Amino acid sequence: MPTRVYLDWNATTPLRPEARAAMVAAFDLVGNPSSVHAEGREARRLVEEARAELALAVGALPRNVVFTSAGTEANALALSPGLRGPSGGPVERLLVSAVEHASVLAGGRFLADRIGLIRVTRSGVVDLEDLKARLANGPPALVSIMAANNETGALQPVVEAARIVHEAGGLLHVDAIQALGKIPFDIKTVGADLATFSAHKIGGPKGVGALVVAEGILGLEPVLRGGGQELNRRAGTENVAGIAGFGAAVKIALQALPEHAERMTTLRIRLENGIRGIAGATIFSDGVERLPNTVLFTAPGLKAETAVIGFDLEGIAVSSGSACSSGKVQPSHVLSAMGFDPAVAQGAVRLSLGWSTEPDHINRALEAWRKLGNTLLKS
User: Do 242 and 198 contact (CB within 8 A), yes or no?
Assistant: First the structure.
């Protein structure tokens, strides 16, 4: 029986061997990282080594890395009224792009009437003119724009957005969860004031995330209170094994980044060329710069839920454009924000590649799509 092909890397990645080894070693430690004895100090060492690895990878200072339970919690921690930079008053409202992850669209701790949506273009890229107009009409804002969209793979103009936001006296949060390990990301180069990351998107374990804060950002209030962990920014005993795995995954992902990105781009282009030639398929965000590993496509009459099941029966794991926590396929809010009809949004299928994706996996995916295109769209 053929080995299954995994093409849902944007949802989660396999655990890297280096991360697994780091976690196994950490499981053998008995100490609480907040304890001052030798056992506690050894656990603390693993946490701080991982903190240093992530800080180095994204151009931050270790003291400004806050470990959380996931990227969702990191986003919730970042979206906080009252944040302020070295100059300027505290932010009083939140502006988010219409294609953000659900954990950002939820608005964190901002009241609903203090949250506004920034439009995106038909290609799924933030409309910077709309951003400027919204910033001009109101008090200082925290703006949240992702580095790369998890569905389309479209890269967002975060550098330009940072300049616009700062000129208006605001702050910029970047959800960089899909960017880390796929494209270079440096918080200083981007100009981000806060950035969020997740371990399981780069070969680390599920259940570990991080918020990275730029130097000089003040007013960050913890979501979880009751302990002094993470320099009083996130209460609760640290997940030592998970954090150690995160650090190991960051290190290997950054080392492999140039080769990995080039290889993924080559495979993605090959996949896209094959998809386009079958059943009148089209690629979303085709005309803009995208992640090297992500393809979101549809075809006339295609139903995503049926297609995902069809691929699965052929031994290939893919996803729809968006899925809720219950696993039920939902129309993509990203494609709706891009201006596509709900019927089109309901037909989006995402294939995302990773470091162990092989040319033969692409061949099998295209063969499966040929079969599906000849059956699903003619039935």
Answer: no
pLDDT of residue 325: 45
Q: Which of 1, 112, 136, 324 is catalytic?
A: 324
Q: What is the pLDDT of residue 232?
A: 85
In order of 80, 92, 141, 145, the CA distances from 138 in angstroms are: 17, 9, 8, 19
Task: Determine the pLDDT at residue 373.
Answer: 85
Collect the ranges in the chain with pLDDT lower than 50.
324-326
* CA dist., res. 191 & res. 236, Å (int): 30
Report how far residue 234's alpha carbon sits from residue 311's, in angstroms, rounded to the nearest whole number: 41
CA distance 353 to 9: 6
Domains of the chain are: 5-14+258-375 (3.90.1150.10), 17-251 (3.40.640.10)
Question: Is 20 annotated as catalytic?
Answer: no
CA end-to-end span of the chain, whole Å? Answer: 28
Are the CB atoms for 99 and 131 separated by under 8 Å?
A: no
Radius of gyration of the chain (CA): 21
pTM: 0.95
